[in-house]
Structure formats: structure tokens, C-alpha cells
Amino acid sequence: MKNRMKLISCSMVFMLSAGLVLGQTKPTPEQVQKDRERGIVIPKTHGVYNWTKDYVEDVPDDDYIHASEAAHEAFRDIKYSIRIHWGVYSKWGIEASWPFIHKFGGNFEMTPQKQQEYINLYKTFNPTQFNADEWIDWFKDCGMQAFAFTTKHHDGFSMFHTNTLVKQRGNYIKEDKPVIEDCNLHYSIEETPFQRDIVNELCDAAHRKNFKIDLYFSHPDWYDADFRPYVEHPLGFIPRTQEQTDRFIARHREQLRELLTNYGKVDMVCLDMWLGQDVWPELKKTVKMMRSLQPDVMIRVRGIGNYGDYYQPEQQVPVGVEKTNMPWMSICLLGKIFAFDPVAEHYKGAEWVIHNLIDCVAKGGSFMVCIGPDEFGKFHPTAVQQLNEVGDWLKVNGKGIYETRGRDIWKQDSIYFTRSKDHKTVYAFTEIWQGKEFTIPSVTPKKGSKIFLFGYSKPLKWKISGGGVKIEIPEQLQAVENRPSKYAYGFEMLVE
Fold this sequence. Notes:
Structural class: alpha/beta
């Protein structure tokens, strides 16, 4: 376990609040111009653009540039990853955080009494079956290249050791409406019976196993009263003082500094929600601090607009190819909620994952599937079985997925296309077995080249036909049990 950093000093708070970040070098005008020419902007059709468009400037300040082109290229190489929502909410088997404010709770009614019980769940949170190495090994065996982990969700509970302290919180049963009371605790994993720094263990395992790290962090914090009123904070009806404002800005900033200082190289930071127009200048300083600490960290756009490096369609895949150079990663639920879903029938299946993965990659993006473990640190057996199937499919077909790029014609006649980065190879995926002949439109194979079906070692016979290529499928593959994979079939072709 890493040694914990000392509490942030008053002088450091002052420097950060003033925007004076240690080690920060102001970019040259030439660097800024080159960065702007890269076209790293959120598509205005993407919903989160509207969250902050009224106060976050479309063009970042001249002292800010994005992660490097190499970092963006490495992000585009990530095609399949997993988001893990985990926190005290797993003890009750409910959705992550939202039921606390009576949203998305389904049949679960969060009464004031339940709210008070909820904020004390950390006292018994003890995931004794959690094993970071087992998680990362399983992710890799499933064909994933990165994980995103909820270091702190909206409910404010930190799954890492933080030196920051919550000074005021809500009490939901003391009076007929919530009131603010004093406190003095980290509200984090170190105050649970488990005590171990889960983020540290996951990052250490990922570094050892060459696995990409994405640390999710929620801007709002519904436990810390200082963070009101943002994103439906349960204490938002109570006015906030300047002292509380300064305190929450410093704590928000320091927790992000901890995440980018204490855990080695972090590939991505997945910010969520927003804070508000009144504190945007301070949040902007925080983002600049993040960039100075790890210049190549890829930062999600939520709450920071075009200061971010990537955007993330949620619970959907874009209909077509977006006209932007900002990379994207779609995130969808394998079950019905972001957190642990105890109902086996809710999990959508390997075929659903593979379809979305192919669809995203063909459009030039990537796919992130979302599940959560139970209170002990174990995933649902049905989720495990389904994601294992996806891993088996990728072991056969991954060459047409990993490190590929989108093609000008990304789909035609229900056939999805990807290409190699050097443009020399085209990959075609069909989700329907085509019988004895398979015609692939808009592709002209290189004269004398060989065409292969992933998982079948012999080259296939082919001929040019009607602006595309017609491939003969061997008789032995007509039997389902002889086919190299299920759900979708990939073909590899060298092109002119």
C-alpha cells in the first residue's frame, strides 16, 4: 500500500486557487494553434454539450492544450473496455447513488430513515472477496483493454484513501426536513472494516499486467454538504456560504490531485456531471492542474466542455459517424443498472455485446460494457459467463477489432467494415451466416492476394463481382459446429 500524502497545506491551497500549478509550463502560441487545428470538440448533437454550453467557452484558454496526439492515438487503439460501478450501494443491491435522491430507484423507496441508514452503510462495508489481480486477469481474458472504476460516485463515498475531510453533512431524521450537521471524516474505504485502498490495488495490478486505467470521478458529492446545490444535491435548498464554497473547491481539487499523484500513470479520468456556472473559473483551474500533473491523461468532457479529450455516449451508440476529431467511447449496461444487478435474466448476452462492439468500432469509436460486483467483490455468474463468451469471440476475431480505424464506408448491406491503420487491410463483419457464397460490396482486394475468414486457416476462393468481391465459403463450414465463432464472422482482405 502506498504511503499516504500529507494533508494539503494552506500555501498549496492558495497556489492552486490562484491557478499557479507547480511544474506547469505555458504552451507556446504555435503549440496552441496546432492544438486548435486538431478539431478536438464535442459534437453539438451530443447531449452533454448542452449541460455547460451557456458558460463553458467553446474555445479553451490560450494556456491550455489537450493531451498529445500520441495519447489520442493510444485512446483510439482501445476498442473494448469495462466500467465498474462499486460502492456502498452494492450492500443493498440497488442502483449506484441515484436512489438516494428518489430517482431511478424503481420499487426501492428511499425514505429519510433509509437515507440515514444509507450514509452509514460504510461502517459495515467489507468486500472480503475482492481480489484486484483476479479482476484484471479476468478482464484481459475477456479481451478487454482497459477498465474504468468509480473512485467516487455521486453519493460521495471514496473507494480510495483520501487525506481530504468532510466537515459538514446531512442529517435526514433529526427534523422534519434534512439539516446540516458538523462532522470530521474522510467518508472513504479507510473508515470501513475493509480499510484497504481498492483504487491502489487495482492500479497496481493494472500496471503490472499492462492494462489501461480509467478513473471515474463524480463532480457532485451528495454526502458533503459543501457541494450543494449541484446535480440535485439533497441539501441544495440551504444557501451555501463563501467559506463552504472555498472548502468544497479545495476538496474537489485535492481529491483529483490525489488520484493523479498517488497511483502512477493514469490513462483516462472519467469526470461525470457538472458543478455550475458560479464556480466554473475554479473548476477550470482544477482541470489545468490535472493537465499539468499528467499531461497525457485523457479527460472526459463532462462538466468541462471542450477542455476534455473524449466524449462518451451513454446507453446508446451514435447512429452514424460524428463530424469531429474528438474520440469517443460508448458505454452501455450489460444488466439493467450500472451497479450490481442480482437478476440473471436482466443480462443482455454475449451476442448483444459483440453487436455493439462491432458497430462502435466500425464507426471509429469503441465500446465499454458496464457491470458492478456485489457487496463482497464478486460479479454475477451470468455476467461472467456472457463476458467470457465475448472473450472467446475476440480470441478469434480480435484482429479486425483491436487497433483498427473506421473506414469511409463503415456499413453496407448489413456488413460492417473496419480497416488497418495503414489502410492496406479491410476487415468485414457479418452477423448473418451467408451460406455458400458471400458478396462483400465496395471492396476491391489486391490482385493475387488471399482472403481469410477469422478462425479458418485456409484462404478462401474469391472473384471480383459487381463493384465488390464474391467469396466462396467451404462446404465443411456450412455445419454450425464447424464454424470458427458464434454470433458474427470476420473476413480479412488486402486491398489495392
